[in-house]
Write a structure and sequence with these properties.
The chain has about 700 residues and is α/β, with parallel strands linked by helices. It contains 22 helices and 17 strands.
Length: about 700
């Protein structure tokens, strides 16, 4: 398309939540109302950076975003969840962060819909909304984000097909066609020097005022620089030309608009037609794969608005009976799957319209201490009552009456106002949207892997007002995320692990395995490979129970020796007697540590030390164990059993005096028991320090 024009074109798209807003199979970023709950606004800047990268790769250089409308009407059919919220100052700050992330990386941003489309119950796609607010209210609410964005350098502003009598008293005149609003207020009073775009001129809010051609000319004369989606471009050009020739549109105005557009193209470096998209991309901040950022945005937005007796985060799930209920779902959901990663839970499903089946579920839930109920299948739009039906209201009331119910609302927070919460649930979490990300991170908040920090961007009622949100602690359990969330690369990690595992499968070293990798408290890979046995009858699955043994060998002893080797304090080519003098004159004194660590030094495989702690009648020997901790019995064996602190010396004596074998591979536990003693002798501290 660009090649058809002598002067490079500007390509634009509605990408309020990224390229996926208009292009299929591209992951969406969160909607702006969800971002309104985010407290770490730097994440919104990062989203701007990531969206800019998406747009650059496709050749788009103008994003018709952010939405700068203040949504203070829950029934708004067209803005609503597309707005950052109802607080003008917060909307301004968040919109500016999104704008800066894009413009710092070569993509023009466009603030819309001027002078403010938030307080209406009419969709301008289908009619002409009327904003009846007084001028004072416009200055305190609707215009606040636009003024701030203009001060911060936004490149473009889109006008709205709304009638605002306080700003222009002409009856039924959309702001798009108002010289008072576009030229007088926006360009002169607010000193906006950037591009002014109309909203699509094929919308009913515009076509109901003027016919094709005349509508374009009126919008152009009002002060708009770019006419979006003209219904008849030929008529538009003809009508504008007539007005220029008659002097109704000064020729100098046309030249000014043209110079402005050319200046924008220069800023976008469109004159550098020999520069490839890849070369242009190299000039800006590289954006990580969006999944990790999308996860962080949703995690920061999760809002806790009920938490009776600090039920969240759930403590000691191993000591309670837990169930989950997926409302409006017939098969296991992602939030139920995530619950199963933290504890055992029985999973139930409720169809609000199937009253009899629902009654059966209610009867079963009485036996559980905690019930996590996910309300799925909702609608973000007010026209459908946000997905709240009478049947759903009844289900929510019944579930809330169960003491210990934690409810997750996967939908528009405005929908909460349509529920009967005279008896609120013990825990109530707002997730804003319904997708795998929100289902995963909301559960992580409930179990304390993530803390809750989100704040309501809009008011639900007097109790749950804008800015309300309860905090809960995080980092109490492992999180689940992506490698980038822990400072790693998905591409490198996944390919390396897949290659290593496949090598073992191909060589039949094992029939299957499960790999779990965590870093910085975040599980970044949890993947199953192959089968339980070589007959390939049962595939390995995430829920399989594995017998994990000798864990401290690879997680404590070996890494400690590696660290000491890096520091020059440990040499694997020295002997055991060198590091532990009391072994020097035994049959193990000359064993090399390298051979011991490779299980090839002739060490016995193991010693049943427990046998020396019991008498012939199987009772514990006197002076060996105690049920209470004290100076003498200071080494914990279990939660309620402690062994004599001198017993380790007995273990080392038994190892020293045991028979040595030949130098061949024999797997031995004993080397790693001695490794702890070596580490402690070299560092003058205990291995756990």
């Amino acid at each position: 398309i660009d090649s058809l024009s002598k002067i490079p074109l500007i390509f634009s798209q509605d990408a309020e939540w990224g390229l996926g807003m208009r292009i299929r199979e591209i992951e969406d970023f969160p909607y702006q109302m969800t971002l309104g709950a985010v407290q770490n606004d730097s994440l919104i800047y990062q989203m701007g950076v990531a969206v800019a990268a998406q747009l650059r790769e496709t050749g788009i250089n103008l994003n018709l975003a952010p939405v700068a409308d203040v949504n203070n009407n829950p029934l708004n059919p067209v803005i609503n969840y597309r707005s950052f919220g109802e607080d003008p100052e917060k909307v301004a700050r968040k919109a500016a962060m999104y704008m800066k992330g894009m413009q710092d990386n070569g993509i023009m941003a466009c603030a819309k819909h001027f002078p403010g489309h938030g307080d209406t119950e009419t969709d301008s796609h289908f009619g002409l909304p009327v904003i009846k607010s007084a001028l004072e209210r416009f200055n305190k609410v609707e215009l606040v984000p636009f003024r701030y964005l203009i001060d911060q350098g936004v490149s473009a502003v889109m006008t709205a097909h709304i009638n605002a009598p306080a700003l222009d008293g002409t009856p039924k005149l959309p702001a798009t066609f108002s010289n008072k609003i576009i030229t007088g207020l926006l360009k002169k009073d607010m000193n906006f020097k950037g591009l002014v775009l109309t909203d699509a001129l094929n919308m009913a809010g515009a076509t109901g005022t003027y016919p094709s051609g005349k509508a374009d000319a009126e919008a152009y004369a009002a002060g708009n620089d770019v006419l979006e989606y003209s219904t008849d471009p030929a008529k538009a050009i003809s009508e504008i030309l007539k007005r220029v020739e008659s002097g109704k549109i000064p020729l100098e105005d046309v030249k000014t608009k043209c110079r402005k557009i050319l200046a924008v193209k220069y800023w976008l470096a469109l004159h550098k037609d020999t520069v490839s998209l890849a070369e242009r991309a190299a000039e800006f901040t590289p954006a990580p794969p969006p999944s990790s950022l999308i996860r962080d945005l949703y995690a920061d937005a999760i809002t806790l608005i009920e938490n009776s007796n600090n039920l969240i985060p759930v403590g000691r799930p191993d000591r309670i009976r837990m169930a989950t209920v997926a409302v409006n779902a017939a098969s296991q959901t992602e939030f139920q799957h995530m619950v199963s990663r933290y504890t055992h839970a029985d999973h139930y499903f409720i169809d609000p319209e199937n009253i009899q089946a629902a009654e059966f579920v209610y009867s079963r839930l009485k036996d559980y201490d905690i019930v996590i109920a996910g309300i799925t299948g909702l609608d973000l739009r007010p026209a459908s009552s946000f997905g709240v039906t009478d049947a759903l209201r009844n289900v929510v009331s019944r579930l809330s009456s169960h003491q210990g119910t934690v409810m997750i609302w996967f939908g528009n927070p405005y929908g909460i106002a349509r529920l009967d919460l005279s008896t609120p649930p013990s825990g109530l979490v707002i997730a804003y949207q319904d997708n795998d990300y929100t289902q995963q991170v909301s559960v992580q908040v409930i179990f304390g892997a993530l803390g809750s920090s989100g704040r309501l961007p809009v008011s639900i009622n007097e109790k749950y007002h804008e800015g309300f949100g309860l905090k809960s602690p995080g980092n109490l359990r492992l999180q689940y995320g992506f490698p980038e969330n822990a400072g790693m690369s998905s591409g490198i990690l996944f390919s390396k692990v897949d290659s290593i595992v496949q090598s073992g499968l191909d060589s039949m070293a094992y029939p299957g395995c499960q790999v779990l990798i965590a870093r910085k408290g975040i599980v970044v890979l949890n993947k199953s490979y192959g089968y339980h046995t070589f007959d390939r009858s049962v595939p390995v699955a995430e829920g399989d129970l594995w017998d994990l043994a000798s864990v401290t060998k690879v997680s404590a002893a070996t890494p400690s020796l590696m660290l000491l080797n890096d520091r020059g304090l440990f040499d694997p080519d020295k002997t055991l007697g060198y590091y532990l003098p009391w072994y020097r004159f035994s049959n193990k004194g000359d064993m090399l540590l390298r051979e011991m660590l490779a299980h090839q030094a002739g060490m016995p495989p193991f010693i049943p030390f427990w046998k020396s702690t019991v008498d012939e009648d199987k009772s514990f020997k006197k002076g060996t164990f105690s049920t209470s901790e004290n100076r003498r019995f200071s080494l914990p064996v279990t939660d309620s059993l402690y062994i004599n602190r001198r017993y380790t010396k007995e273990m080392f004596r038994e190892i020293r005096d045991s028979k040595a074998g030949s130098k061949k591979y024999v797997y031995s536990d004993l080397t790693f028991i001695l490794a702890a003693e070596i580490v402690e002798s070299l560092t003058d501290t205990t291995i756990d320090k």
